[in-house]
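Hey, sorry to bother you again with one of my protein questions. There's a protein on my desk that I can't quite get my head around. No rush at all, and the record is pasted right below.
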Amino acid sequence: MNNPLPRVAAIHDLSGFGKASLTVVIPILSTMGVQVVPLVTAVLSTHSRYKGFHFVDLTAHLQPIVDHWKQLNLKFDAIYSGFLGSHHQVATVEQLINHYRTPDTLVVIDPVLGDNGKLYAPLSLQMVEEMRRLISRADIITPNLTEVSLLLNEPYDPEIPPDILRQNIRRLVNLGAKTVIVTSVPVPGQPRRTSVMAYSGTDHRFWKVTCDYLPAHYPGTGDAFASIITGALLQGDSLPIAIDRAVQFISLGVRSTFGYDYDPDQGFMLERVLNSLNAPVQISTYEWFEDEK
């Protein structure tokens, strides 16, 4: 079944209220001209920041859905995995990657495990163990600082020194991921700045994009970030340009929302900034430096 648009299998949950997961992934990738074929891992009444959320684990339904896709002989330009409803789902994601991966298929894994030093409410430490195995199959992983510490079984340090972070990123590459992009990285001596640091195991280069920090935390920004990385690479962007576009979009979304009297748990106002994804690439702010190991 041929398709004139890039097509991505998006393995994520669906949260009814609060912009996160598929309610962020689908509009972003669609705006970037990518067809999204969702494989829904769980249905939640809201994302997990809201207390008392209802959670439906769809593990038992994933394999029949994938089997039907195989019958249809679907082809995917990318496989993009995010929040998994159970550690048992990792095996299904691995099987999907094995079946659909070609030399040209992009595999992006956002190892959604936690934030601010804590594991997300529906998840267990067994999910961390399984995620360590899954990231070895990825071309790109996009952990935040909490997820880096969980994957490496290291203490969480929100002020981690740059040299230690670079060591940790190399360790994640040694686990099998070809490229590691870490979000929410502190900028030493600049508390009002934050950055994204990436490392490509192919050319042994580090990349860094820095932006101003606002004192607000909106759920779903990680989903938006990884989605833009996926869409930009499918559009043909280089890795540093893809990172730069993702950082600038998140920054724009946060700034467009911050001035309102607004419950931040709803997520940033995605609809206000979606059209900016179609703007020409602006002057980029990325930095690069060789691996000094």
Summary: The chain has one domain: 7-290. The longest helix spans residues 239-258.
